[in-house]
Recover the amino acids of this structure.
């Protein structure tokens, strides 16, 4: 059934009576014969947007794709109830009520509204036990298809079910949910879950509870905190999971913000009221990115910027109810998650005492933030309780005990900010604030001139080449100087400066070390050749420059064999060199102050070792060469005699003398 209601006569009267701020009314759909309760949104595969409204006499589905002309797609009549709550999963809507209708399941793929089911019995597939319940205050469905039933009950003829949280699995069979478990430490009025963590509003305990539900058969409470007015209606977690925002359903109650990054140390970081002193009652709040969208009964739909949860600021609202103050009238619920960005809200009785659906557009933006520290200009100590007033607004903040402050405005632009505190001169700053930007402004505040000592004597000891700057003047010679300056507070100050200039020194040195050694000066160590500059304190504590020209000597040794000669060569390091060659049979060759190749005729087979020492006393690497001498062996007897050898002068040399010959 599609129903379009034309209300051209009534809408102008309705619109003119409302108060809006950074929100605009795009369209409305009234329910002239009944009142509304909660609301949820749904989007089909064609991106059409729908509002699902709980009514006292049933459930309505309204197409809000074109918000200026909402169209009711179907209405399902159901048992009368003041309370009705709706959530969706896939193509199904799930509805609870505190009247005994069980769980209403609506197939949204059938937009005639003729396909729906009432389920009251839920089987646990592990235990086989059937859980029967007929009423529940609220429900939530997480991203895994787990339905959380809050505040369940039965007529007196049935056993009472858990009135904390009941876990149902919708994935296996969306129209026959199975029972997985429950958490029943407190009665739960409302809640939500994300990533296997549940956040609960335990209204009669006055707290929100954080529960690990990764094991649905054995949930575990992992954190809790009490809310400002001890009547916790709902709780919603921030997108990053570090904060929880709560409402207390009482007159003049607050929206609370809590840091839950450490579940062992949950603490409140801020609280705010939509209309302080009006006795208005907050109902449900939802986190939508950087914003908190709240149904606030007689204050309508409100929007707070929660970019900085420790400083929430209201940036928009649409008050759809003509009255104000204490009372359960006006806006029951709001849904901010449609892809279009439009916000849909259900009003209990804002249309001639009956219900109405409102579709809002967003004109609100992130606030313009300012933070900083306020410090005494002379002592550098923080100043607490400084009044920070933004002129032409009603914004007035105080600095905390650490001198820190934070403030914000809704609209961007140039602002005059006055900082005032007893015992200090007022200071006025002009600053440009922009949407979504956190500006930082640190301030020094000074006592008035009458309370200051305006004469100062300073003594300085500096080194040659340095200078002392007093106001516009620079001094670099010993002497006494007198300057008259305007202090940071605008007061004249006479500064007397007694200046002593001490000389600085420089020193040059040449250092030679061997490779592998380290030269150390002051705190620095060097092991490669180069020129180094080190700044040291002299006796007068003035800088002295030590210039070190460092040479690292690294001689090398080369040993080659060019039969019959063994050749030695040294390079690198600092010539001349001392050569030393050692070999088998006690062979030793030593030569001083030499350069270039030196050759010897080895006498025996074996390993020869060579190294060199340069003139800086640095020893080269040690090199070796293995020589195998070619030897002829003759058979010797009485008939044969050894071969006769002759030297280069034609002299006869005995065979054994030949073997013993050494150059």
């Amino acid at each position: 059934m599609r129903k379009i209601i034309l209300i051209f006569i009534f809408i102008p009267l309705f619109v003119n009576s409302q108060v809006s701020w950074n929100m605009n009314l795009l369209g409305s759909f009234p329910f002239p014969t009944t009142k509304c309760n909660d609301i949820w949104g749904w989007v089909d595969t064609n991106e059409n947007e729908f509002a699902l409204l709980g009514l006292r006499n049933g459930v309505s589905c309204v197409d809000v794709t074109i918000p200026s002309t909402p169209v009711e797609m179907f209405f399902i009549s159901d048992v009368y109830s003041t309370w009705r709550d709706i959530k969706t999963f896939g193509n199904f809507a799930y509805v609870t009520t505190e009247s005994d209708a069980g769980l209403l399941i609506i197939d949204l793929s059938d937009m005639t509204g003729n396909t729906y089911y009432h389920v009251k019995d839920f089987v646990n597939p592990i235990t086989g036990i059937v859980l029967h319940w007929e009423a529940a205050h609220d429900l939530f469905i997480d991203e895994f298809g787990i339905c959380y039933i809050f505040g369940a009950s039965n007529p007196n003829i049935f056993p009472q079910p858990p009135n904390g949280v009941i876990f149902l699995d919708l994935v296996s069979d969306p129209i026959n949910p199975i029972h997985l478990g429950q958490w029943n430490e407190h009665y739960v009025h409302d809640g939500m879950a994300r990533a296997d963590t549940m956040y609960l509003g335990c209204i009669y305990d006055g707290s929100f509870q954080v529960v690990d539900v990764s094991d649905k058969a054995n949930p575990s409470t992992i954190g809790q905190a009490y809310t400002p007015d001890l009547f916790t209606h709902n709780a919603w977690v921030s997108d990053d999971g570090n904060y929880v925002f709560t409402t207390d359903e009482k007159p003049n109650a607050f929206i609370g913000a809590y840091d839950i990054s450490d579940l062992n140390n949950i603490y409140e970081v801020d609280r705010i009221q939509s209309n302080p002193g009006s006795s208005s009652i907050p109902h449900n709040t939802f986190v939508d990115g950087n914003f908190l969208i709240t149904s606030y009964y007689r204050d309508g739909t409100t929007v707070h910027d929660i970019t900085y949860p420790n400083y929430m600021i209201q940036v928009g609202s649409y008050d759809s109810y003509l009255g104000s103050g204490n009372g359960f009238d006006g806006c029951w619920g709001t849904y901010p998650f449609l892809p279009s960005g439009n916000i849909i809200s259900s009003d209990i009785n804002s249309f001639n005492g009956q219900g109405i659906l409102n579709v809002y557009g967003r004109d609100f933006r992130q606030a313009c933030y300012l933070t900083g520290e306020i410090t005494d200009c002379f002592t550098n100590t923080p100043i607490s309780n400084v009044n920070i007033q933004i002129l032409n607004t009603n914004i007035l903040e105080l600095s905390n005990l650490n001198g820190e402050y934070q403030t914000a405005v809704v609209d961007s632009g140039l602002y005059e900010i006055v900082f005032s505190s007893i015992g200090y001169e007022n200071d006025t700053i002009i600053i440009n604030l922009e949407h979504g930007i956190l500006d930082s402004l640190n301030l020094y505040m000074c006592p008035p001139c009458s309370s200051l000592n305006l004469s100062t004597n300073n003594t300085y000891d500096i080194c040659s080449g340095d200078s002392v700057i007093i106001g516009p003047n620079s001094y670099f010679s010993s002497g006494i100087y007198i300057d008259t300056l305007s202090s940071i507070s605008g007061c004249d100050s006479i500064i007397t400066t007694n200046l002593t200039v001490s000389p600085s020194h420089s020193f040059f040195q040449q250092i030679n070390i061997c490779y592998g050694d380290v030269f150390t000066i002051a705190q620095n160590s060097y092991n490669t050749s180069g020129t180094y500059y080190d700044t040291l304190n002299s006796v007068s504590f003035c800088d002295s420059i030590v210039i070190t020209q460092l040479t690292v000597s690294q001689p090398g040794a080369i040993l080659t064999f060019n039969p019959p000669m063994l050749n030695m060569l040294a390079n690198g390091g600092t010539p001349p060199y001392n050569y030393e060659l050692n070999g088998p049979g006690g062979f030793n060759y030593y030569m001083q102050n030499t350069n270039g190749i030196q050759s010897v005729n080895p006498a025996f087979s074996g390993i020869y070792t060579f190294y060199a020492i340069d003139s800086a006393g640095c020893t080269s690497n040690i090199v070796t060469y293995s020589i195998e001498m070619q030897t002829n062996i003759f058979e010797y007897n009485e008939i044969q005699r050894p071969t006769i050898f002759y030297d280069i002068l034609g002299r006869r040399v005995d065979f054994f003398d030949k073997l013993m010959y050494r150059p």
